[in-house]
Write a structure and sequence with these properties.
The chain is α/β, with parallel strands linked by helices and 456 residues long. The protein has a domain at 79-111 and 240-437: 3-Layer(aba) Sandwich (Rossmann fold), CATH 3.40.50. The chain has 18 helices and 15 strands. A seven-stranded mixed β-sheet has the order 1-4-5-15-10-11-14, sandwiched between helices. Strands 8-7-6-9 form a four-stranded parallel β-sheet, sandwiched between helices. Strands 2-3 form a two-stranded antiparallel sheet.
Length: 456
């Protein structure tokens, strides 16, 4: 067995002091979000109704390094720096010459990478005098993270949880409520956006786009409430870069550099968090590759259109430049609820469009097959979202085996699957099915894209 240790650890003193802002180094300036009423670029003051000043400043900043406030770092120390693992046992099971590493974010109190930004957002809102945060959640990782962060900083928290996940994952809801949050299944009767969907489809499984509409409406109609988003926006991906910054330092401790960086991609926080610090090296001439992995049921990058679209179903957000399946597309009720979003981060979308990121989509049975192999090799049961990255890492390692190539593969194991065992039960009993081709539904939703300047 290799002399490389199984766990590569950093002391708390090595916790990053700054977040990395990729806007400073992007080869092409990012396209601006647009005001849907005027068609003009969104101004910072347009966001003041739902975000605190510090987060608005981070959203538009072009500074390469953004200091992490000490109260945020103090909370990070509860679980950060997170371990980097060398997957010795998985490598042996595959018989591959590839060296596989994974950054494990499941050690956070909420069990995923999401607290990295939840803690920062709760801190900045508390500093701005906000009393309550409203948000959406798909599989529950983000809702759990924000519930935790609000509890730590003395804020109230309201979570609109996508109905299918609310029903599939009751213990995620229980975790949020243990930290003091109020959780509503979405679509809900508590907002106009929710009532509108329920009126048209009383049994709607919900979607992240619908839940976002409810949370944004809640925040915009209450002066003491702001909105918190778990993915997509620039400041969210900024906060997640602690993952990649730590991983680069941990790889250097064992004399390694990543050839390929892999992460699942729903809205982009997982991918951006681990990959953006490595793209910094790519822009400087490094040959590192980045692979985004998504479900075939919601193939935003691989089958979406690069266009301006709303981030939510009701059209309450600015028009965002992104790969989209159309805001009215409601993905099938797959178990990877955190990846059921019609769009992607504007930053991820532009980097993919310009060829700096690759993308791949998988059906859910293949994803769970990989997750079980990983669990039986490495001992950790991955969240269904994270298992998409596991699937791609295994496939790339097998490709290395076929070609006799010893590449260094790094992937983000963004969370554990302890609350997802019903999905594993369904897989092992043969009841987990791959969804039918969503092409027709995607085409209908794309036909309803709003009028906006084309993205070229």
């Amino acid at each position: 067995m290799s002399q490389v240790p199984t766990k590569i650890l950093l002391d708390e003193s090595r916790l990053p002091t700054h977040w990395y802002n990729i806007l400073a180094d992007m080869p092409t300036p990012p396209k601006p979000p647009l005001n849907p009423q005027t068609g003009a670029p969104v101004r910072p003051e347009d966001l003041a109704a739902i975000f605190p000043p510090a987060l608005i400043e981070q959203e538009v900043s072009s500074e390469r390094w953004i200091p992490i406030p000490e109260p945020v770092r103090e909370v990070y120390r509860l679980w950060r720096p997170t371990p980097l693992f060398r997957a010795h046992r998985l490598e042996a099971a595959l018989g591959t010459p590839a060296r596989i590493y994974y950054k494990y974010e499941g050690v956070s109190p909420a069990g995923s990478h999401k607290p990295n930004t939840a803690v920062a957002q709760a801190y900045y809102n508390k500093e701005a005098g906000i009393r309550r945060l409203a948000t959406e959640t798909g599989a529950g990782q983000w809702g759990s993270a924000l519930s935790l962060a609000c509890n730590l900083f003395g804020l109230e928290c309201t979570v609109y949880m996508v109905r299918v996940s609310y029903d599939q994952k009751p213990y995620r809801r229980s975790m949020m409520e243990t930290w003091g949050a109020t959780v509503h299944p979405s679509p809900s009767p508590h907002t106009q956006a929710g009532r509108r969907v329920l009126g048209a489809e009383p049994d709607s499984p919900g979607s992240l786009g619908i839940a976002i509409s409810e949370a944004v409406e809640d925040a915009a109609t209450h002066e003491d409430t702001n909105y918190a988003l778990g993915s997509v926006l620039n400041h969210v991906l900024l906060h997640q870069t602690v993952i990649g910054l730590e991983a680069k330092e941990q790889l250097a401790l064992v004399g390694e550099k990543a050839d390929l960086v892999i992460a699942s991609c729903g809205g982009g926080s997982n991918l951006g968090g681990i990959a953006f610090p490595f793209l910094y090296d790519r822009f400087a001439g490094d040959e590192v590759e980045v692979l985004a992995v998504e479900p075939e049921a919601c193939p935003t990058l691989t089958r979406g259109r690069y266009a301006y679209d709303f981030g939510d179903v009701a059209g309450l957000t600015p028009l965002l430049p992104m790969y989209t399946l159309g805001r009215t597309y409601v993905p099938p009720a797959i178990h990877a609820g955190g990846l059921r979003y019609h769009g992607d981060s504007a930053l991820v979308s532009q980097l993919y469009h310009e060829g700096h990121i690759q993308a791949r989509a998988y059906p859910q049975r293949a994803v769970f097959e990989a997750a079980v192999l990983f669990a039986r090799s490495e001992g950790i049961v991955p969240a269904p979202e994270s298992a998409h990255a596991v699937r791609a890492a295994i496939d790339e390692a097998l490709r290395c085996k076929d070609q006799g190539e010893a590449r260094t593969i790094l992937f983000n194991l963004s969370g554990h699957g302890h609350f997802d065992m019903a999905a594993y039960d369904a897989y092992r009993s043969g009841q987990l099915e791959d969804v039918r081709d969503p092409g027709e539904a995607i085409a209908r939703a794309l036909a309803e894209l709003p009028e906006a300047p084309p993205l070229v």
